[in-house]
Amino acid sequence: MEMKKLFYIGGVLAVLAIASFNEAFGAGECGKANPNMEALKLIPCASAAQDANAPVSSKCCAQVKTLGQNPKCLCAVMLSDTAKISGVDPNIAITIPKRCNLADRPVGYKCGPYTLP
């Protein structure tokens, strides 16, 4: 009887551990993707995110368009540790969707202290 009780408690603890793991690493701003890893997709935007006068490449615009379908994710990527380490200026990065002339960009979306133009 004692062994059966321990097995039951162990099973319950395992279920709780799995549930909390999925919650902690499940649906964030970018779904199950990590914003720091998603930021790597924006490497073509590096110079445009540091210099407001730099041209924005078509590869950059394509990635921004894809990420911009989820404004929360785009925001999380722009403010990610990866972006900061890469020298991205959030004041400039936030202008990239407009500089790409994306008609369906989330105009007015609040991204931390920044607002998408």
Write up this protein.
It is a single chain. The protein is mostly helical. It contains seven helices and two strands, in the order αααααααββ. It has helices at 2-25, 35-39, 58-67, 71-78, 81-85, 90-93, 96-99; strands at residues 110-111, 114-115. A two-stranded antiparallel ribbon has the order 1-2. A hairpin with a 2-residue loop joins strand 1 (110-111) and strand 2. The longest helix is centred in the first third of the chain and has 24 residues, at 2-25. Residues 3-24 have low confidence and may be disordered.
What class, by secondary structure content?
mainly alpha
Could you state the order of secondary-structure elements as H and E?
HHHHHHHEE
Task: Write down the overall mean pLDDT.
Answer: 82
Q: Note the beta-strand portion.
A: under 5%
pLDDT below 50 for ≥5 consecutive residues: which ranges? Answer: 3-24
Figure out the total of helices. 7
Please count the beta strands (DSSP E, at least 2 residues each): 2
Radius of gyration from the alpha-carbon trace, in angstroms: 20 Å
What strand line-up does the widest sheet have? 1-2
Q: For the record, give the distance between the C-alpha atoms at the N and C termini, rounded to a whole number.
A: 66 Å
Q: Helicity range of the residues?
A: 40-55%
GO molecular function, one term: fatty acid binding
Protein name: Bifunctional inhibitor/plant lipid transfer protein/seed storage helical domain-containing protein
Keywords: Signal
InterPro entries: Bifun_inhib/LTP/seed_sf (IPR036312), Bifunc_inhib/LTP/seed_store (IPR016140), DIR1-like (IPR039265)
